[in-house]
Design brief:
2 domains, 4 helices, elongated
Amino acid sequence: MTEDERLKVHVEKLVKENYWLKSERGIDGVRITELLSENADLRRQLDEANDKLIKIDMWCRAYPLDVFPEPDLKEVRRLLEAGGITIDCVSASMVRHVLRGIGDILGIKMDYTLRRQRVGK
């Protein structure tokens, strides 16, 4: 039996016995049942949030520096620009990829269709 189930059984027993529940505090069995339901909902939400944080943490650890060392960004920039690509475009693409992945874990659809006019154009 889970802790919530044990608590519910105990509270139900107290309600049946009219033990302190109808005291000057004004707490009754219906309110206790509502609070237990809210507690269960909050625990479920907390468990879901923890599961999502674990997935994000696992993703963060998926690219360790000993396996994927930091590149020489000046050299990367030079090579990319020689091929007609800017490092800014690659960086933005990687950030969008990461944010999309986090959005998927959190159940948020990321929309990058907003177009901004470049400064100076």
